[in-house]
Amino acid sequence: MTQQQPTTMEPMSEQMQDCVQACMACHGVCEETMSSCLQAGGQARMPIMRALMDCSEMTRMCADMMMRRSPLANEMCMMCAQACDMCAEACMSMPDDERMTRCAESCRRCSETCRAMAGAAM
Fold first, then answer.
1. CA 83 to CA 65: how far, in whole Å?
2. What are the residue ranges of helices labelled H in 1-122?
3. What is the pTM of this model?
4. For helices 14-39 and 73-91, angle between their N-to-C axes, nearest 10 degrees
């Protein structure tokens, strides 16, 4: 069930700020990882690239929705957590790649903060 749009914009809670920052950090790491994969000549498999693209878009959109206090933000946080989990798993299919490991770590952190926000009031 969605919440009604607030009539006034209250300052973001510390929890929401942490989640927005984790989303934006994850978005940046996913974008960098995609770029690195493309420069490496397509060594990354397509499922990894899809996971990176999905995660990158979801984290950016999730942060945007929280910042504007969208009534759909809680649901978006849960979807974002799922996208981050999938991306972390895909990145860990290449455990010897330092960039992929870093991306997986960022995805896991974002997933944790998004799951916490999914249960929080916006």
1. 16
2. 14-39, 46-67, 73-91, 98-118
3. 0.87
4. 40
